[in-house]
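Structure (tokenized):
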């Protein structure tokens, strides 16, 4: 299972892309809003207990100061993938990117591109696929599909 959390419901349209891609790989997801600044107790509970509920990877999306992914990573033994979200209170998204990317040594957060929730979902699936052959086979098929799309487009352009 993959836990998908975000700091605000305004992040859901972006984070839905992670939900969609994970569900396409038949990976169970749980989705919740966990604000680092407005619900710190919930953040602590989520980060400390997600692995006890069977979560294998956490995808955390946040905008603005974007403390959610790093705070979760500081508390959880699970891999955390941070999704910087360009929010209305953001400085073109750079504050979110840097807040998630520039973690201190010992507290890693894998970071995807600004609004890159789809890639976060794929990365979460690849992490799970490293020890789950069924998921790995689906990822291999997905990547083959990407290759075929490019080959078909290339053929259309050549005509």
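Design, position by position:
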């Amino acid at each position: 299972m993959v836990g998908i959390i975000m700091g605000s419901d305004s992040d859901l349209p972006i984070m839905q892309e992670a939900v969609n891609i994970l569900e396409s790989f038949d990976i169970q997801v749980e989705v919740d809003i966990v604000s680092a600044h407005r619900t710190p107790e919930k953040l602590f509970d989520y980060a400390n207990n997600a692995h006890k509920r069977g979560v294998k990877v956490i995808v955390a999306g946040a905008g603005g100061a974007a403390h959610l992914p790093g705070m979760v990573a500081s508390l959880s033994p699970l891999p955390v993938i941070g999704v910087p979200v360009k929010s209305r209170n953001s400085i073109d998204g750079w504050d979110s990117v840097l807040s998630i990317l520039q973690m201190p040594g010992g507290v890693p957060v894998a970071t995807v591109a600004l609004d890159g929730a789809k890639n976060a979902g794929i990365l979460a699936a690849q992490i799970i696929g490293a020890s789950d052959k069924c998921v790995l086979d689906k990822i291999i098929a997905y990547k083959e599909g990407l290759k075929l799309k490019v080959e078909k487009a290339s053929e259309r352009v050549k005509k």
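Reviewer-requested clarification: The longest strand covers residues 57-63. Residues 2-158 form a domain with the Rossmann fold fold (CATH 3.40.50.1970).
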